[in-house]
Amino acid sequence: MLLVLENEVDPDARYFVPEIVRYLSEYEVYTYADEGGQPSLAGVDGVVMSGSTAGVYDRDDYPWMAEQADLVRELVEREVPTLGICFGHQMVNHALGGRVEHRGPTHRLVRADLADDPVFEGVGDVIPMVHGDHVVERGEGMARIGSADYYPNLATRHCDAPVWTVQYHPEFTDRLLDRIRADFGWTETDLSFSDVSVEETLRNFERLAGE
To answer: Taking the model in full, what pTM does it have?
Structure first.
């Protein structure tokens, strides 16, 4: 069973997690942004940390972020398979001593350079991005496994624990494009959603967590 952490602070923007769980076979959702505290890890095979319109630097406004940073360190120590998505990518690296900065919005398809890693099996190099924050310094033990021309630390993996993080939303297929365009804006490029297969990231992670 995968535990999916809902980190979105705006209830009207909580449409990403319902897309995440479409690709998972067995899961529970814990709304961290409302409940805080620490979810039980009993019976959990892995953890998926969702995105958020908040930033990891908003800790004064959202005290639960400090609790989630503690959870990240526990997940690494206990070697619980973990996938950090967007805000989750930033939170994992931040919790392990990295640095996150706001660099301005990117809402477009980009071409990424992805490492030969099992979490990327079947994932093409055309990636939909919707974010404003960047991991500018990776956390301790986090190695780069994905980059783009404007973002060196697009994806990371812990050197010892089964922890992966990606800046992109693996749940962001063309099903979400109209909603993303309305809420965040969208820049058209010569790349096409017909080449997007980021959802395989979630299927791969579930398989890896089960192993």
So the answer is: 0.97
